[in-house]
Amino acid sequence: MAVLPGDPATVKLGVNANPAQVQELRHQFGTDRPLVAQYLSWVGGLMHGSFGTSYLTNAAVGPQIAAKIQVTLWLVVLALVVAVVVAVPMGVLAAVRSRRADGAALAGVSQLGMAVPSFILAILLIDLFAVRLHWVPSGGWVPPTAGPGPFLKQVALPVLSLGLIQAALLSRYVRSATLDVLREDHIRTARAKGLSPGRAFLRHGLRNAAIPVVTVLGLQLAALLIDAIVIEKVFVIPGLGSLLLTSVSNRDLLLVQGIVMVLVGAVLVINYVVDLAYVAIDPRLRRSA
């Protein structure tokens, strides 16, 4: 952002501002210092729990991020729930019935879903359910405090736009993991004792198949944070993504750095939770520990 044309002082004062005023404001912001000095100053603030102050609004960056991330987390968590609820049964069924027409059809549907960008699906859902059928609003935001009905009605389309695309990807991994487990000797033994493929998998193979799926689920949760940036723009939702895009256009570097740092921290936490999930799922890891 530092090498792009424009800077916070020019954005705040306008392109027709007096050069002397622009230079004075740059000095107040500290953007006339070397980039290394600016960065070290910002890192020093992080060590004391401060993300700095926005150049344009003169408001603390931390509270702005905290207010917006609540909106984004609602979208991400609900989209992840949709992805899991759709992908797990779809992937297991596609694996169990892989040699039949309906299993091949499910695999084809998931492959098609992976090829559709989330913002394209969002536009299609808006056209169908908001413009043509008038079932739900086409955009905006209603907080959960307004009641579960209005809240779920408002977030239905953005959550489906995020969740269905991730469900298509996740179902492919669920199918692959399930097929690998179904080929194991202990599953063949369970089948030989009279269990159906589905019951043998649920009773003896579900945990083994869950480990690679949990890995992908952690990656998808991180991807949902990034996808939410675009979806929030499509549905005019005042979340972290909208704040990031506005900050980029305004060259508000401190706000952009703060948002990116929060996203990085979220990805690190997600990876740690995935590691804990491995131990919870696989008893062999607990015994080795």
TrEMBL record:
Residues 69-274 form the ABC transmembrane type-1 domain. GO terms for molecular function: dipeptide transmembrane transporter activity. InterPro entries: BPD_transp_1_N, MetI-like, MetI-like_sf. One of its GO terms (cellular component) is plasma membrane. It is a multi-pass membrane protein. Keywords: Cell membrane, Membrane, Transmembrane, Transmembrane helix, Transport. SUPFAM superfamilies: MetI-like. The keyword Zinc-finger does not apply. The keyword Ribosomal protein does not apply. The chain crosses the membrane at residues 73-96, 116-135, 155-174, 209-231, 254-281. It is found in: Cell membrane. Belongs to the binding-protein-dependent transport system permease family. This is ABC transporter permease.
